Amino acid sequence: MTTFSEIKLRLMRLLDLDPKEESRIILEAWVSQLEKGKIEHQQQQQQQQKKQQPQQQQQQQQQQQQQQQQQPQQQLLDKELAGKLVDEAKKDLAKKKASHRKRVRANT
Asked: Segment Disordered: which positions (predicted)?
């Protein structure tokens, strides 16, 4: 792993800077700006994540509420459908009994 001073020397060579005090001051200022930018970027990412978490939680809560509201409605629809099916079955059974009675009477 390279040390901070090694990185500085490499940067100075890349930038054709003399290892003079002026160049070091410029380089240190540049490095500190980069570090500040990195820290600011990390803080922005953390803030965005913090903002997104409550939004996601709110969306999940809304979905749960919608599901809870839909359940009683679905239960009512299921009960209505079951009631209609029972009514139809009763009517069919009554028709079959009536036709069976007619056959029995016709045979006797």
From this structure: 38-108
Q: What pLDDT, in 10s, does the model give residues 51-106?
A: 777 777 888 888 888 877 777 777 777 778 888 888 888 888 888 888 888 888 88
Q: Which residues contact 79 (CB under 8 A, 6 or more apart)?
A: none
Q: How many CA atoms lie within 13 Å of 29's alpha carbon, on the beta-carbon side? A: 6
SS3 assignment for the chain: CCCHHHHHHHHHHHCCCCCCHHHHHHHHHHHHHHHHHHHHHHHHHHHHHHHHHHHHHHHHHHHHHHHHHHHHHHHHHHHHHHHHHHHHHHHHHHHHHHHHHHHHHHHC
CA distance 9 to 16: 10
Domain residues of the chain, as ranges?
A: 4-107
CA dihedral (101, 104, 107, 108) in degrees, to 10, reads -100
